[in-house]
Structures are given as C-alpha cells and as structure tokens.
Amino acid sequence: MIKVIPAADRHHASHGWLDSYFLFSFSDYYDLNNVQWGPLRVFNDDYIKGNSGFPEHPHSEMEIVTIVLEGEVTHKDSLGNNTVIKAGEVQRMTTGTGVRHSEHNSSDKDLHLYQLWFFPNKKGLAPSYEQKSIDFTDEKNELVPLVTGQKVLEDVVYINSNSTIYYANLKDGKEIDFKTFPIRKGLIYVTTGELFVNGIQVQKNDQVRSSDVDALRIKAAADSTFILIDLPGVEANY
C-alpha cells in the first residue's frame, strides 16, 4: 500500500512565535484515524521565531528526536544537559521514567526543525540524552542515516526503537531504491522539491505512508530533500 497525504491535509497550529504543522494527532488536533504510524507517534514540522521557544515541561515513556534544518535550538533538561543543536545536528532524548526540558531559539534568526516522538521498545528506561553532528544537509544523492535502533548502522544517534530515520539530498533526475519488507512500514516527508515514489508524484511537504511493499523507488523530479523513516509494522517489533 502506498498512500499520499497532501501538504494541505497537515494540521496547522499558529501561535505567533510558533508555526507548527502536525502530521499526526497532537495537542488540540485529534483524528482517531491519524494517531500513529507503527511506533511513530508524533511528527511536527516547526518554525520558531527568534528569541522564543518552549518553556520547561515534562515528558515520560517516549523517544524524542529533534532534527535541526535551519538555525539553532538551545536545550536544557533536568539531567543537567545545557546544549545548542545547530543545523545539520540531531538530538535524541529518552524520557523514560520522566524528564523535564525546555527548547528555545535564543538567536534573532528563525529556527526550522522536525520533532518526532516514538514509542520505546521498553518501558521504565532511565532518561538519557544524545546529540551528534552528522552534516546531513550536504548534497550526497544517497540516504544518510541519522537515528537508528537497528544496530547494523554505526556513527548515528541511537534510539530505543526498531526504527531508522534517513535524510536525502537528491539532485534532479537521481534515483534511490530503498529495499524493505512487507512486514515493515515506511514514511517519506518531502522537505523541498518534488519526487516520484513508486511512480506516484509527491511535492513539498507531502507525505507518503507505505506498508506491505518490498521496495520504495524514489526519483527526484527536481532538486529535492526528504526524510525517510523505516518502521516496524507490528507492535511486537517496536
């Protein structure tokens, strides 16, 4: 199954300092048929104005991943971390038994980031934090792994989920074949440009959700960037 969800179908929440686009039910947006995709519970596309951000708040029993596309975010948490995540860097926070954190854009420039939440493969984990510079924004014409719980990949951020997040910067006309299995799910979110996924056209901010396929054949119809997430299809494999 290949399902395309147009950009216009995302839920948009505007708070002046924050423009956020929800791919799944979140905050005041709830759709019984759009709660999660495999263990992926939240995917928010956030634009945060300078000198603003999220005050300290609690989380538990989630794997939270932040991917910074433009600008930088200052992170503080109850574990004692006080860091700055810049464009091309990735952060993972295991909230486990409970953690408090704040995220602020402390600069004058706008910040663009993706935040994703995954159900962990174990409950009651000790809270932990990881941050890594992967420089994924460079043109590579390949899938660059950013975050994974599949131990066959190295030099990426670890997550307590049987999932992997990839980023690709693909020139017009270039192709990528991603081999998968019918028991897996996939999600592609187009950051810029235009793609054909298994022959189906998708454009900026569209998403593709796949299941019961053995390959995703991706061709750029223009210079394009996108996120691809490889996910387990059944809860027993989260």
Automatic annotation (TrEMBL):
<feature type="binding site">
    <location>
        <position position="57"/>
    </location>
    <ligand>
        <name>Fe cation</name>
    </ligand>
</feature>
<keyword id="KW-0408">Iron</keyword>
<dbReference type="InterPro" id="IPR003829">
    <property type="entry name" value="Pirin_N_dom"/>
</dbReference>
<feature type="binding site">
    <location>
        <position position="59"/>
    </location>
    <ligand>
        <name>Fe cation</name>
    </ligand>
</feature>
<protein>
    <submittedName>
        <fullName>Pirin family protein</fullName>
    </submittedName>
</protein>
<feature type="domain" description="Pirin N-terminal">
    <location>
        <begin position="11"/>
        <end position="117"/>
    </location>
</feature>
<dbReference type="Pfam" id="PF02678">
    <property type="entry name" value="Pirin"/>
</dbReference>
<feature type="domain" description="Quercetin 2,3-dioxygenase C-terminal cupin">
    <location>
        <begin position="154"/>
        <end position="231"/>
    </location>
</feature>
<dbReference type="GO" id="GO:0046872">
    <property type="term" value="F:metal ion binding"/>
</dbReference>
<keyword id="KW-0479">Metal-binding</keyword>
<dbReference type="InterPro" id="IPR012093">
    <property type="entry name" value="Pirin"/>
</dbReference>
<dbReference type="Pfam" id="PF17954">
    <property type="entry name" value="Pirin_C_2"/>
</dbReference>
<dbReference type="InterPro" id="IPR011051">
    <property type="entry name" value="RmlC_Cupin_sf"/>
</dbReference>
<dbReference type="InterPro" id="IPR014710">
    <property type="entry name" value="RmlC-like_jellyroll"/>
</dbReference>
<comment type="similarity">
    <text>Belongs to the pirin family.</text>
</comment>
<feature type="binding site">
    <location>
        <position position="101"/>
    </location>
    <ligand>
        <name>Fe cation</name>
    </ligand>
</feature>
<dbReference type="InterPro" id="IPR041602">
    <property type="entry name" value="Quercetinase_C"/>
</dbReference>
<feature type="binding site">
    <location>
        <position position="103"/>
    </location>
    <ligand>
        <name>Fe cation</name>
    </ligand>
</feature>
